[in-house]
Fold these 2 entries.
Entry 1:
Amino acid sequence: MLLKKNNMRRPIIVGNWKMNNGPTEARAFFDKFIELKSEYEKNGKEIEVDWAIAAPYISMISLMDEDDAKYIPLAAQNVNENKSGAYTGEISIPMLQEFGVEYVIIGHSERREMYNETNASVNAKVLAVTKTLDSEDDDYIIPIVAFGETEAEFESDRTLEVIETQLKECLVGLNPEHMKEVVLAYEPIWAIGTGKTATPDQAQKVIKASREVIAEMYGDEIAKEVRIQYGGSMKPENVKDLMKQPDIDGGLVGGASLDPESFFQLLTYNK
Ligand code: PEP
C-alpha cells in the first residue's frame, strides 16, 4: 500500500479556513482560484507542491466540480475516531472518505484550547486515521498533526521540552510505515492569527528538534522522510524565507488562505 503520498518530502501547503468561508463564499473563492490556476497553467506552469484546503464540512461541496481540471484537494479540520454512532456534532473517517477528503488536521491548538483536546485524544484520532493507509483503494486520509508551544512556554524557554512531550504522546504506537506518511505541523501558538511569525531560524530550530524526536521514536530513516510544516502567520511575504530552511517542508496557513490570490501566491512561492 505504501508509498501513498509522501514523495521525498515534496512540500505541502494546506489552507485552514477554520470557521470562515461558508458555502457561498467558498464558491466565490473556488471561481477566482480556478481562474488563477487555469491562467497559470496556460502559461505552461503548474503548482509544484502538494496542497489542500481545510474548509468547513458544509463548504466542501462548493469546492467540488465535475470537471477534473477544477479539482481542489480537500482537508478536514477535525474528525472523530469512531466509525459511527451517538456522537452529536461529529464527523467520522468513513464519511470523510466517502467525500474524497485527502487530509485531516488533528490537534490544532484551537481545538486543544477551546474543545479540550489532549495529546491522548489526538493520538486516538491519529491511530484511527492512519488505518486508512492500509486501504487498497485510493481513499486513504493523511493526518496533519499540529503541535506547538504557548507564548508563556516560549517566553520561559520551554519550547523543546513541550514539543517533545506533545510529539511522543500524540504519535505513540503508530506503525512505522504509517508514520512516514503523517504530516506534522509545528505551530507556535503565539504566532497563530497574531501576525507574529517565528523567524525562519526559530522555526527551523524547533522543526529540526522535532525531527530528532521522531528519530528517537521511529529511527533516522523515517525521521528523514517525515514532512514537517510550519504554521503561524505564514503569508506570501515570508513564505520563501521559511521554505528555504532545510527542515521546513511546507505550511499550515490560516488567514492568508482565505483569499484566493494570496493562497495561490503561497502555492506558487517557488516561481
Ligand atoms: C492556523 O490556523 O493553523 C494558522 C497558522 O493560522 P494563521 O496562518 O492565521 O496564523
Entry 2:
Amino acid sequence: MNIEDFACPVPNLHYERVQMVHGAGGLAMAQLIDHIFLPAFANPDLDLREDATLLSIGAEQIAITTDSFVVDPLFFPGGDIGTLAVNGTVNDLAVRGAKPLYLTAGFILEEGLALEDLKRIVASMSQAARAAGVKWVAGDTKVVPNGKGDKVFINTTGIGSLATGNALSCHNIKPGDALLVSGCLGDHGIAVLAQRPGLQFDTKIESDCASVVNLVQAVQQAIGPDFHACRDATRGGLTAVLNEFAQASGCSLNIEESAIPVRPAVRSACEMLGLDPFSIANEGKIVLAVAQEAAEKALAVLRVQTLGSDAALIGKATTGPAEVILKTAFGTHRILDLPVGEPLPRIC
Ligand code: MG
C-alpha cells in the first residue's frame, strides 16, 4: 500500500443552499466560482484568477479589482470596516504591480445604523485613501429595512496604472524561485475573533490592516523583473495563497514551518482555539515569489520598512506536482491543502 492511499479524501461539498463557508476564501468558495460564476462570466482575463485584472485602454495598461466588506464587528483593534474597504482593494491592485489611483465606494446601510458610526467609518476610509494616495471617483448608497442587513456592508472598486512597474502574476512563478512573507501571520483574524461575543478573550494583538503599496513598490524598484509574483494573504491566509501559486504555476512549493513568522500571542490563541495560523486572514501581509538570486536583496528592502521588519524567506518552488509541502518543526512533511474555508466567517 502506498502512503498516498492514506491521504484524507477531499471533503464532500454538495450544498443545496449558500452556506457561510461559501464566503470564506477556501475550497467551498472556489467551488462556487467554478460552478456558478465562471461558467456564466468566464473569459481569458477572468480565467487567470488574479487579484486584479489588467486591461489595455489605448496605449495605457490599467488594473481593476472589486471587493465587498461585511466584517463583524465593524470596529476592532487596529482598524474598522472602513480601513479594510480601502486597504483590501488597494492591496489587490498593488500585488499585480499596479500603482493604485482611483476608488469607488458602494454602501448598503441597515435602517437604524447610528450616524456617528457611519461618520467614523467614512473618516477611516478617507484617511486610508489619503495614505494610499488614491482618489474617490464614484459612490452609491442604498438602505435596507431594519433586520434585513447587518448595520453596513461596503463595496469598493479600485483602478490602478501599470505605467511604472512590470506586471506581477502567479503564472510567472518558476522552479527555483524563493518564497518570502513580509511579516508575522494571523494578526487580523485573531484581533477580530477576540472581539466576538461568546469568544472574547484578552489579547494585545491588533489587526495588521494597512496598504502594502510601498512594500511592493520597494521590491519592484530593487529587483525589477526578478520579482515574479505577489499576493496579499487575506481569507484563507498563507495556505490559500500558496495553493493558488502552486495551481497557477504548476510548481511544487516547499515551505519550512520554523521559518514562518507568527507572533507568540497569535500562536497561543490559535492553539487554544484549535486554529491553524497559516490559514488565518491577514490584511497587510504579502507573499512574494522572486528569482532565487534576488531573494536576499528583496528581503533586505522589505526589512527596512516598518511593515516588513519581520519579513522572512520561507521556502522555494521546485518542479511539480502542483502542491504545497510543509516541512514541520519535527522534520516531517505534510501537504498543506486549501482549507474548506477560513475558519472565521465575516473576517473582512
Ligand atoms: Mg488579494
